[in-house]
Amino acid sequence: MENSKLSSALFAGTHFDRKRFAADFARFHQGPTPSPAAPSAPSPEKKRKRKSGKAKAKKNKKKRAGEAAASSSDVVEGFNVFKGLEGKNDELRSEKVEIVKNEDSVAVRRRKEVEREIERAAILRKRFDIHIAGQNVPAPLESFEELISRYGCDSYLVGNLSKLGFQEPTPIQRQAIPILLSGRECFACAPTGSGKTLAFLFPLLMKIKPGSKGGVKAVILCPTRELAAQTVRECKKLAKGRKYYIKLMTKDLSKSGNFKDMHCDILVSTPLCLHHAVKKRHLDLSSAEYLVLDESDKLFELGFVEVIDSVVEACSNPSIIRSLFSATLPDTIEALARTIMHDAIRVIVGRKNSASSLIKQKLIFAGTERGKLLALRQSFQESLNPPVLIFVQSKERAKELYKELAFDDVRADVIHADLNEEQRQDAVDNLRAGKTWVLIATEVIARGMDFKGVNCVINYDFPESAAAYIHRIGRCGRAGRSGEAITFFTEEDKPFLRNIANVLLSSGCEVPSWIMALPKLKRKKHRVDRDPISTLPNED
Ligand SMILES: Nc1ncnc2c1ncn2[C@@H]1O[C@H](COP(=O)(O)OP(=O)(O)OP(=O)(O)O)[C@@H](O)[C@H]1O
């Protein structure tokens, strides 16, 4: 088809202005487009048109680019995001730097705060002679009020403390309470009469909801019935105003109790009674959240270990918090106890296994058994400052000495394992009430018993170990009061004298140099067959 015919066909019906487009028309008719190497010289008119055409093309190119960008952004979202943020990057970067700077300063501030807290805790520990071992030990309490501000304690509990006349926490309370409240397990060793009971009772009362259903929430083990009864009394005093179920496991209860329907938040027991109740009466302890072993070294003594094991096993709640408290904690017992505890913190107030510094201690050589009775009579004649506790090594000897003192018209009573629960409690109550001046006792009340105001402890029979000595004399010099401890010794006791003399020395009491020159005894226990006390004719 000819070019003219083609254009006519294409533009059929359209008016084509040949005159106006003469040049272009001519080009179609001239044949192929001239090569760029030989361009025809443009007319001024053409130049102007081309210039304006170029400007348009440039404009269009820009527009297309914009459109392309816009259309491509429709497809590739990220592109647009980055494109859009391109301008903001610097802004963001500086914002990020600002945030990092802020975070840095928050972290720095927090670190400084933590450092200050650690320093404050160290100062408090130094001031109160508190020694710790363990990871991330919570800071000691500065005051009881901190229990409210730091741990959200119900104010009625702290109110009860002030009603009981407790103004300041004792050192063991300062450290052990935060540890237990933080859900950590602990070994706590602090002098006799330094408030360990409150140190373990208070966290239980704070954490356990009163009257909660679903089984026993806390188990406290004590080595004797008397101590268990005393612990229940103390717990009830602290919990006054709230309906906690605080129960003492008696012999009768452990033999015939129906534990299915028993409401009990806190259960206090001796190991054997509890063991019996678990094994024979199916007492369920699986919901217990706390297990406290008070006088723990005594509990772990030979003969009790298996029973303690079975109680620990019965307290099967995996998140149970266990704690051990005592004034004496031998390394062997600590190692044994560690096997049942996890990540436990060790707290020692003062020196481990030492007597209270509030007690004036004396050793008196009495020569023989007869010499001891004379020395006792003489000391009573010189000054009797009741209440006085006298320790002997067996129930038979307790009965013998009781008869001698009764003959002398001394208002005395006696407590030993042959008496029933009620008689033992009466003996304790009578001393507390001031009805008796002198209480003659076996080891039964040597541990943990808190007789207000005992002025003097007499070890009529030499104690069988340094730990026994510390606990016996610890019945006086309690809660900040001073006390006196007199220990008689005979020729037979001399080999063991040095062990006790070490306790005197470490609590600042004087010891004659000849005693310290005695050979050290490897044996830890000292048991002697003694001549009878009695000087009175036999009634039989
Ligand atoms: N914060 C306190 N302020 C004043 N007295 C306190 C405080 N805490 C406890 N007590 C009192 O101190 C006495 C001794 O307390 P507790 O019987 O708990 O001593 P302990 O350390 O358990 O002694 P032990 O080793 O002989 O068992 C008690 O009469 C108790 O009421």
Automatic annotation (TrEMBL):
Give, as one word, the top-level EC class.
hydrolase
GO BP terms, alphabetized: maturation of SSU-rRNA
- EC number(s)? 3.6.4.13
Q: Where is this motif: Q motif?
A: 146-174
Q: Could you state a single Gene Ontology molecular function term? A: ATP binding
Q: Where is the composition biased (Basic residues)?
A: 46-64
Q: Has keyword Electron transport? A: no
InterPro entries documented for this protein: DDX52/Rok1_DEADc (IPR044764), DEAD/DEAH_box_helicase_dom (IPR011545), DEAD_box_RNA_helicase (IPR050079), Helicase_ATP-bd (IPR014001), Helicase_C-like (IPR001650), P-loop_NTPase (IPR027417), RNA_helicase_DEAD_Q_motif (IPR014014)
Catalytic activity of the protein = ATP + H2O = ADP + phosphate + H(+)
Keywords attached to this entry: ATP-binding, Helicase, Hydrolase, Nucleotide-binding, RNA-binding
Q: Does RNA-binding show up as a keyword for this record?
A: yes
**What Pfam families does the record tag this protein with?**
DEAD, Helicase_C
SUPFAM superfamilies xrefs = P-loop containing nucleoside triphosphate hydrolases (SSF52540)
Could you tell me where the Pro residues compositional bias lies? 33-42
**In this protein, which residues make up the domain named DEAD-box RNA helicase Q?**
146-174
Q: What family is this? A: Belongs to the DEAD box helicase family. DDX52/ROK1 subfamily.
Quote the protein name from its UniProt record.
RNA helicase
Q: Which organism is it from?
A: Digitaria exilis
